[in-house]
Write the structure tokens for this entry.
Amino acid sequence: MYSKKRKRMIYGMAALFSLIIAVVGMYTVSMPSEITIFEDEVKTVDLNFPFGISGDEAVSVMASESDDGFLKNSVDISVQDKSEAKLYFTLFDKITLKEIEVSVRGRETLIPGGQSIGVKMNVAGVLVVGMEDIPVSSEESVNPCINSGLQIGDNIIEINGEKIYSAVQVQEIVNSVPKGEEINILAKRGDTKITAEVVPVFSFDEKSYRLGLWVRDKTAGIGTLTFYDPDEGLYGALGHGIADPDTGVLLDAADGEILYSKVVSVKQGTSGDPGEVRGIFYESDHPLGTVALNSDFGVFGISYNEMEKAALGGSVEIGYQNEVKKGKASILTTIDGEGVKEYEIEIEKINRQLSPSTKSMVIKVTDEELLKKSGGIVQGMSGSPILQNGKIIGAVTHVFVNNPQKGYAVYIEWMLNEADKTDGLVESEKHNLLYK
């Protein structure tokens, strides 16, 4: 029999071991399975002792050490040549916890944007934005979907095996089903697909069958063009994704287009009340490009050849995050009828990121003219490109609600990663779009 003291010791050691396993697991999961490093880039990675990173012969890993020999919380990674390489996330520099694939990308140039654009986008499927009871008589109301498992924020993509493209189509299918027969719904909730069976009910008021759902199939808004890549025919804009205003869910883009927007007024931002660039665009105007992807890092697509005419100037190099410094920088944006102008800002904080993440930088507007016109960062300026030392380094994403002079920005490299995903378009379609 173990003594109570011995038992406490065993339980304590077991608890400590479990904690170590949990911490190791947490750090291992947080490390990406693959990363992209640009040619000539030095990527800084934050670490905590006893974790480390090593590399194969193609990778240079420089770790700083303090006087007592303990690893500091950062290492600098660079790649020796353009071949693919591997990193190894380790424990005590002895145990490999995870292999990280490294791909090398050549240094690129982009044409910075700053133009105000309108975005019109159709949702893939229809988004559930609300539920309501359906009156089935003068005294009774029911909601046929309430116990189906569907939730606000779900994206309906099929009904009875038929792909869904619009709210009108949903209503047509519901009213074509024989009375009392259930319909089969396939929906997406994040990355998970779910199914539901629902029997529509006849609305006493509207004299038609209903599901008890409010759905949305399209959206539109104003933002700012970040960059145009004339070599690839790609563009990036907004710096953040388009979310449904009612549910906050990131919308899955089916298709859409971007167009020129005319700025008509600016509502100044104040503490607690974000301002807004107010613009208009017309369906009849010739579009600048397609919307192929809506992600956390902006909207991206194939540009028409007219976008090259919209460019302010020539191409500039991209600036990697290791080249971004605290201090003076500038943004290109449009807040009146005078078109794109350059305004001074200050980069106050830099977050070194190994894998794509938002909130890469904290910026502050210092330009007196911009502060006078808008009070700082306002809605509609999202996507405004940030320049430092002649390079494009990122884009404005969000304003601080309680301080409109400040906001977040994202690294340009994360937006470029997203733009690459539009390569899923077949080359023939891409060619037709470029020379439409």
User: Anything to note?
Assistant: The domain at 110-120+219-423 is CATH 2.40.10.120 (Thrombin, subunit H). The chain has a mean pLDDT of 81.
